[in-house]
Amino acid sequence: MMDAQTWRVGCRCLLLLALVGSTRSEGLQSCEEVRKLFQWRLVGPVKGLQDSPRAGPDLQVCIAKKPACCTRKMEESYQIAALQDMQQVLQTSSSTLKFLISRNAAAFQETLETLIRQAENYTSILFCNTYRNMALEAAASVQEFFTDVGLYLFGADVNPEEFVNRFFDSLFPLVYNHLINPGDSSLEYSECIRMARRDISPFGNIPKRVLGQMGRSLLPSRTFLQALNLGIEVINTTDHLHFSKECSRALLRMQYCSHCQGLTLSKPCMGYCLNVVRGCLAHMAELNPHWRMYIRSLEELSDAMHGTYDIEHVLLNFHLLVNDAVMQAHLDGQKLLEQVNKICGRPIRTPTQSPRCSFDGSKEKHGMKIFIRNGEETLANRRKEFINSLRLYRTFYGGLADELCANELAAGDGLPCWNGEDIVKSYTQRVVGNGIKAQYGNPEVKVKGTDPVINQIIDKLKHVIQLLQGRSPKPSKWELGMGSGGDMAEPVSGDCDDEDGCRGSGSGEVKRTLKITDWMPDEMNLSDVKQIHQTDGSSTLDTTGAGCTATTETMALALMGAVMLLPGLW
């Protein structure tokens, strides 16, 4: 039997012989090969097709002086096939890019959803372990807050300033009724306390810090996701581009008119292919500078999303600020008691009967599950990997015509090729460049006017580029616009400061060292806890008895609520 290498060599020889033999079509005697290929390619019946070439058929595009195997009906079918072929190679060429963006957009959304659930669980565990009496009453507010975070991130028209303030408004009555002036009060009195929160500021500047951190981290992440979805839209649009009549006729002539002369094995010359495809994709090539800027702007925003601009850092440390807020109010309890009495009057108290939250080690009883974070799989690392891959496609639209001809459509170097009229050794016409302006004098395709669909996509790219650049933090100042869906302007200097709670390594993770005692008892005795300020700026909480040392991250995976409290208490 003949081996594989001999078989391949034989096939190549036959192909070359067929091509060389087909350089002259005057001797074409039969249309059998044309009929077979037509039936196979177009899945159409051979009934009514010519058995032999005929002179002077009524063709519109594939006009030749020689007898032809095509009929007018076949030419119309070839026209449809040429357009379908072009759509197919466009979709094939963009499939890897489209998959890259769509896969990562889905992965980023899934990761953000996980982070939101994780941050919600951390906050719930804080209440469950440390503030048990108010835990169940706080559950609804915690859930509502993180639901709003998710809605905003994924494009809903909600206002971060409103849901941050709403959370702290709802938190104050709980803190007042359980820590400052314990006892049950009427709904009317609790509502008065809630309404008084913004006037008396029981939580100090912490709500403002939360609002600043949420604003600086949520909006860039929201914009990043919106930009990825627009990238998918751009590719979907260009994959299904509508071609002009001039382009359709040129594609037919390039790909199928050779069949009418029985030259079924021929492929277009490289220069010929470039003229046709560059003409057909001239409007698409105008996307190139905007696509390059789109990728560059995504990269700049991704690079800037660290520290307090990193949503992972902000969400996973939110519970620490909530704890700081509660303890701030507890420390100022006497002053707040007097202010509330002045605004709302003295309440009629009954002993509080609030149900307590039981903390189960499995975290499953109340739907609380601790997620183990892999340091190598942070959101920032995923963004970096994605941007590195996306950067390879910066010139995708500028070089698309060349890629299609080189990889899919044109004949190889040195082989006989089709020039639109016959098989030749090389294409002799002038080859034009990419883009609309370069098409002046294109011998194969007349390009006129502009494409409204492409213009619309360019406008969308310009808009999202402005959003991306506007959401990239600058070294000195970054301004947010958050209107309905949040309208707030907040100039912020630098990336991070002590007030934001991100001192330490600069990696975006809070490095607070804490000494942890044995499993925390049902009721934490605040008097047993004291804070030791260290010279390096970190803080250590020392409870009675010997303990172990852990970072905030490992604490969250163990006894988070027991010791994640009280940074800055004394």
TrEMBL record:
<keyword id="KW-1003">Cell membrane</keyword>
<dbReference type="GO" id="GO:0016477">
    <property type="term" value="P:cell migration"/>
</dbReference>
<keyword id="KW-0449">Lipoprotein</keyword>
<keyword id="KW-0357">Heparan sulfate</keyword>
<keyword id="KW-0472">Membrane</keyword>
<keyword id="KW-0336">GPI-anchor</keyword>
<comment type="similarity">
    <text>Belongs to the glypican family.</text>
</comment>
<dbReference type="InterPro" id="IPR019803">
    <property type="entry name" value="Glypican_CS"/>
</dbReference>
<dbReference type="GO" id="GO:0005886">
    <property type="term" value="C:plasma membrane"/>
</dbReference>
<dbReference type="GO" id="GO:0090263">
    <property type="term" value="P:positive regulation of canonical Wnt signaling pathway"/>
</dbReference>
<dbReference type="GO" id="GO:0009986">
    <property type="term" value="C:cell surface"/>
</dbReference>
<keyword id="KW-0654">Proteoglycan</keyword>
<dbReference type="GO" id="GO:0098552">
    <property type="term" value="C:side of membrane"/>
</dbReference>
<dbReference type="InterPro" id="IPR001863">
    <property type="entry name" value="Glypican"/>
</dbReference>
<keyword id="KW-0732">Signal</keyword>
<dbReference type="Pfam" id="PF01153">
    <property type="entry name" value="Glypican"/>
</dbReference>
<keyword id="KW-0325">Glycoprotein</keyword>
<dbReference type="GO" id="GO:0005576">
    <property type="term" value="C:extracellular region"/>
</dbReference>
<feature type="signal peptide">
    <location>
        <begin position="1"/>
        <end position="25"/>
    </location>
</feature>
<protein>
    <submittedName>
        <fullName>Glypican-5</fullName>
    </submittedName>
</protein>
<comment type="function">
    <text>Cell surface proteoglycan.</text>
</comment>
<dbReference type="GO" id="GO:1905475">
    <property type="term" value="P:regulation of protein localization to membrane"/>
</dbReference>
